[in-house]
Amino acid sequence: MSTITISIAEARRLAVAAFEAAGATPENARAAARALVAAEIDGQRGHGLTRVPSYAAQLASGKANPAAEPSLVRAGRAAIRVDADHGLAYRAIDLAIDALAPCARENGIAVAAIFRSHHFGQAGAHAEKLAERGLVALVFGNSPKAIALWGSAAPALGTNPIAFAAPMPSGAPPGAPPEAPPRAQQEPPLVIDLALSVAARGKIVAAQKAGTPIPEGWALDADGAPTTDPDAALKGSMAPAGGAKGAVLALMVEIIVATLAGSHFGFEASSLFEAEGPPPDLGHVMIALDPEAVSGGAFAARMAVLARLVEATEGARLPGAGRRAKRLAAEKNGLSIPESLFREIDNLVSQSD
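The structure corresponding to this sequence follows.
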């Protein structure tokens, strides 16, 4: 597979230009470009630049509202509702995060439900933004049907990502032995991000675009047989992570998101990869907690103890610890992407000239 290396700035410029060429307002184009490039940097390629062509096609067709203006209302003392206006999700998500932080500080906990939305993107990135503000975050999103109900062969549930993030404190915890060195600096948040399929559906799309097979165990074809062909996988279903446990967790997220946000279930939502059809009308639910208030001031010390355990355990690391290295490498070396994908995005831009 032939690849090409571009800078982070060039990746953002190309994505913005492709979305604006498809009719997106500058605000919507920039928000989506930032999110996709951030996912690419973090190695989450299924939520990265591979999404640019499908986003652009849906903006051009109106399936995703190119001029969307998300709006927010307070639905209760600690409840927020955000209407994404059938646009790409990222401005609505940013609006929810900005409102959640002060609301959680005021009440100890806050929840935001986003509806009439689109592809959720990198769920962990949304949780991380809340953790960077000192909050513990739980983030849920649903997606078009890809996983079968357990015992069935037909896809009905989305891959339905779950993300969790928590701030990591610096300094030695109270009661630590005097010889224990303090933590050198404020650590980046702990971030856990997982889809409830064995692999994210976006990784199948990335493999399809790259012309490479997928690993065994990721997916089933339309007849329910295991496959390593990404084309057959996209016509079939994704294997749930952990078998029946993953399938029921996907159902749990479906209920949390679609019923609380008032959005479509996965089996009702239109494809996120095709330009045709109505808006997908997906939902997202984000929960933020003020850790010091909820823990009675014990949170930072207890998290420090946990961090010390991980540091002292050979071979162990906290989830998401590799993000910093990937981000530094991307800043230094740029982003390596399939040349075919670069040409596809560049053509989207050139066609508007």
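The radius of gyration is 21 Å.
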